[in-house]
């Protein structure tokens, strides 16, 4: 099974996700909100992840910046040390970016599930606990 993906919308979400994963002894993927590269940027996303990981380094499987349909944002993310991005682009563009990513030791995200989006959640910690417990129980 692929590691669970938790879509975060800020530092509080990242901290909730990683603390819950650490408590359960599992690793998760933190993915930015859809298209976040355009309005948040790679440097800010990386800082959010770095701050959250400082407290729970063994809980992080990967951090994925969603670059929407912009290959330019994906390439910029690689330059800012983001190792994995999500990109919705035509096959020829994806193939070219995937080639560049591979040469740089990076990758395109292909993980399509399971996913928890914390965007509309009132209590991110409680929702992470509920969702991860449900996944663990199977």
Describe the protein's topology:
Blueprint: E1 5-8, H1 11-24, E2 28-32, H2 36-39, H3 42-55, E3 60-66, H4 71-79, E4 84-86, H5 91-103, E5 107-108, E6 115-117, H6 124-137
Quick take:
With 138 residues, this protein is of the alpha/beta class. Helix content is 49%, strand content 17%.
Distinctive features:
6 strands, single chain, alpha/beta, TIM Barrel, six-stranded parallel beta sheet, globular, 138 residues, 6 helices
Describe the fold and architecture.
With 138 residues, the chain is α/β, with parallel strands linked by helices. It has a single domain, classed as Alpha-Beta Barrel (TIM Barrel), CATH 3.20.20.70. The protein is built from 6 helices and 6 strands. It has helices at 11-24, 36-39, 42-55, 71-79, 91-103, 124-137; strands at residues 5-8, 28-32, 60-66, 84-86, 107-108, 115-117. It has a 6-stranded parallel sheet with strand order 5-4-3-2-1-6, covered by helices on one side. Helix 5 (91-103) links the parallel strand 4 (84-86) and strand 5 (107-108). Helix 1 runs parallel beside helix 3 (42-55) and helix 1 runs parallel beside helix 6 (124-137). The model has no long low-confidence stretch (mean pLDDT 95).
């Amino acid at each position: 099974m692929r590691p669970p993906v938790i879509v975060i919308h800020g530092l509080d979400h990242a901290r909730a996700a990683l603390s819950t994963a650490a408590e359960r002894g599992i690793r998760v993927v933190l993915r930015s909100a859809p298209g976040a590269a355009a309005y948040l940027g790679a440097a800010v996303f990386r800082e959010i992840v770095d701050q959250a990981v400082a407290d729970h380094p063994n809980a992080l499987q990967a951090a994925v910046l969603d670059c929407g349909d912009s290959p330019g944002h994906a390439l910029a993310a690689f330059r800012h040390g983001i190792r994995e991005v999500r990109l919705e682009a035509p096959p020829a563009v994806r193939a070219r970016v995937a080639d560049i990513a591979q040469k740089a030791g990076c990758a395109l995200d292909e993980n399509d599930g399971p996913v928890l989006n914390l965007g509309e959640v009132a209590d991110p910690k409680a929702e992470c606990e509920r969702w991860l417990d449900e996944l663990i129980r199977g």
